[in-house]
Amino acid sequence: KNEVEQSPQNLTAQEGEFITINCSYSVGISALHWLQQHPGGGIVSLFMLSSGKKKHGRLIATINIQEKHSSLHITASHPRDSAVYICAVRLVKTSGSRLTFGEGTQLTVNP
Amino acid sequence: EAQVTQNPRYLITVTGKKLTVTCSQNMNHEYMSWYRQDPGLGLRQIYYSMNVEVTDKGDVPEGYKVSRKEKRNFPLILESPSPNQTSLYFCASSPGVDSYNEQFFGPGTRLTVL
């Protein structure tokens, strides 16, 4: 079982819909990152969370440390949001600065 | 422009022929890392470096070497590439070594080993 699980694996939405992508982890973490991978392959960091909630434009990320769960929400989705969204965590049990990644959620937003 | 650059972007090579993928950042970041991305396995960390002359293994270091002689550069060396190292490789950097820093990714290097 992966230490970081994302759901769903694939998500198709219509333009304008509210989207939620989930990330669950099984052990203690010190931080959680949400990344976006464009269709061309490039990766961009969206958020880094250690508690609470962050918002940037139409994107909102939340984390619940007690439940070991984070969500990424996209409001008023647009076709340009189509990408793979990746959750990554810094596990407390690992030394140094290692990140452990989920397998990603492929989001397709249709016009 | 603040960025992480990788070269080459695409490479096709043959088994056993030594190669180096370069990574350079112009943000004076302390932390640098190499990842590989494979279908069904996601991103996995190969090696990371917390500062000049300080490197450590990630989750999948076998078959790879790295060096950090200067702060800005972190090359990935495959001494004897094998087909199972065919993958998409990303270099990343971060201002600090703790958990609370954003990571900046390079554009990726698609490597095929025949």
What does this structure look like?
- The complex is a heterodimer of chains A (111) and B (114).
- In chain A, the strands form 2 sheets. In chain A, strands 2, 4, 5, 9, 10 and 11 form a 6-stranded mixed beta sheet that branches. Chain A has a 5-stranded antiparallel beta sheet with strand order 1-3-8-7-6, with no helix packed on it.
- In chain A, strand 7 and strand 8 form a beta hairpin.
- With 111 residues, chain A is mainly β.
- Chain A has strands at 4-7, 10-14, 19-25, 29-37, 43-49, 52-56, 59-64, 69-74, 83-91, 100-101, 105-110.
- Chain A has no helices and 11 strands.
- Chain B is an all-beta fold.
- Chain B is built from no helices and 11 strands.
- Chain B has strands at 4-7, 10-13, 19-25, 31-38, 42-51, 54-57, 65-66, 76-78, 87-94, 104-105, 109-113.
- In chain B, the strands form 2 sheets. In chain B, strands 2, 4, 5, 6, 9, 10 and 11 form a 7-stranded mixed beta sheet that branches. A 4-stranded antiparallel beta sheet of chain B has the order 1-3-8-7, with no helix packed on it.
- Classes of the chains: A mainly beta (111), B mainly beta (114).
- The A-B interface holds A 30-31, 33, 35, 41-45, 48, 50, 86, 88, 90, 95-104 and B 31, 33, 40-45, 48, 50, 56, 58-59, 88, 90, 92, 94, 97-105, 107-108, 110.
Key structural traits:
heterodimer; A: 111 residues; mainly beta; 5-stranded antiparallel β-sheet; B: 114 residues; 4-stranded antiparallel β-sheet; 11 strands; 50% strand
Main pleated-sheet profile of chain A: 6 strands, mixed
Element-level helix/strand string of chain B: EEEEEEEEEEE
Radius of gyration of chain B: 13 Å
The overall pLDDT average of chain A reads: 91
- The end-to-end span of chain B amounts to 36 Å
Q: Could you give the order of the helices and strands of chain A? A: EEEEEEEEEEE
Biggest interface pair, counts: A-B, 24 and 29 residues
Mean pLDDT over the full residue set of chain B: 93
The termini of chain A sit apart by 36 Å
Oligomer: heterodimer
Helix content range of the residues of chain A, please? under 10%
What fraction of the residues of chain A are assigned to beta strands by DSSP? over 45%
Total helical elements of chain B: 0
